[in-house]
């Protein structure tokens, strides 16, 4: 990864001051599940319409991320074969105290050979989802499907501003959808050692292979937030 998610998210915020609203409302009070983006407004084969990248990188990001569809289900297909390492972001109005649970599905297609998120020379992930807290001087949780690190492993990076948590590992489940539901407030306390005292800016995803110089691919779908226990 050539630039920190925090810097990239700040840059994206500059070009998009307004938040992206949730489908069906905002992530305010109550416990109902809100779908962040069902991709219904995005055309198959195009860059996902509601998502943003950091300035001047839209063309490269569009090479990596495209909306695809199978059996009526739309999803974001990420395929990095050119060492591009482009993140994309979904900003939204998120009351994390009311809706701390973030859920999504991903499907690794190609794991970057020897990818290891604990090492700079091999810091690539087929699938990565970020929760970003603070657009300008913030920090982030990064959930990954790692090539080599074991599930449950945590890694501190960027002088402790980026905490990585491995949810899936290796090729055993490659090509199959895997669903995850995390309590962001609980994970934040576990990883940073303190309570989360402000709302996240939104989420980001990254599929990259620029450190290992190997292809990397993942599909993403079913992004929701809720107050429900999972």
Task: Give a brief outline of the structure.
The protein is mainly β and 230 residues long.
Write the layout of secondary structure elements.
Elements (H helix, E strand, L loop, with lengths): L4 H11 L18 E2 L22 H7 E6 L2 E8 L6 E5 L9 E10 L16 E7 L5 E8 L7 E4 L4 E8 L8 E6 H9 L9 E5 L9 E11 L4
Parallel strand pairs: 7-9
Antiparallel strand pairs: 1-12, 2-3, 3-12, 4-11, 5-10, 5-12, 6-7, 6-11, 8-9
State the major sheet: 6 strands, antiparallel
Whole-number radius of gyration?
16 Å
Residue share in helix: 10-25%
How do the SSEs run, as a string of H and E? HEHEEEEEEEEEHEE
- For the secondary structure, the number of strands is 12
What labels would you give this structure?
Jelly Rolls; 35% strand; 6-stranded antiparallel β-sheet; 12 strands; 230 residues; 3 helices; globular; 12% helix; mainly beta; 6-stranded mixed β-sheet
Structure characterization notes:
This protein has three helices and twelve strands. It is mainly beta and 230 residues long. It is globular.
């Amino acid at each position: 990864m050539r630039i920190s998610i925090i810097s990239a998210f700040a840059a994206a915020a500059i070009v998009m001051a307004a938040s992206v609203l949730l489908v069906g409302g905002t992530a305010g009070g109550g416990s109902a599940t809100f779908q962040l983006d069902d991709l219904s407004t995005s055309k198959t084969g195009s860059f996902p319409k509601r998502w943003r990248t950091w300035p001047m990188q839209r063309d490269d990001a569009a090479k990596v991320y495209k909306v695809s569809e199978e059996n009526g289900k739309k999803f974001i297909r990420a395929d990095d074969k050119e060492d591009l390492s482009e993140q994309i972001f979904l900003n939204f109005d998120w009351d994390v105290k009311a809706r701390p649970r973030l859920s999504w599905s991903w499907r690794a297609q190609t794991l970057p050979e020897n990818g290891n998120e604990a090492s700079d020379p091999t810091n690539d992930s087929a699938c990565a989802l970020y929760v970003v807290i603070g657009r300008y001087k913030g920090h982030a949780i990064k959930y990954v499907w790692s090539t080599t690190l074991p599930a449950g492993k945590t890694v501190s990076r960027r002088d402790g501003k980026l905490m990585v948590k491995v949810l899936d590992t290796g090729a055993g489940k490659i090509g199959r959808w895997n669903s995850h539901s995390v309590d962001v407030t609980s994970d934040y306390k576990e990883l940073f050692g303190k309570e989360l005292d402000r709302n996240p800016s939104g989420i980001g995803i990254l599929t990259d292979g620029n450190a290992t110089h190997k292809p990397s691919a993942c599909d993403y779908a079913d992004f929701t937030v809720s107050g429900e226990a999972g």
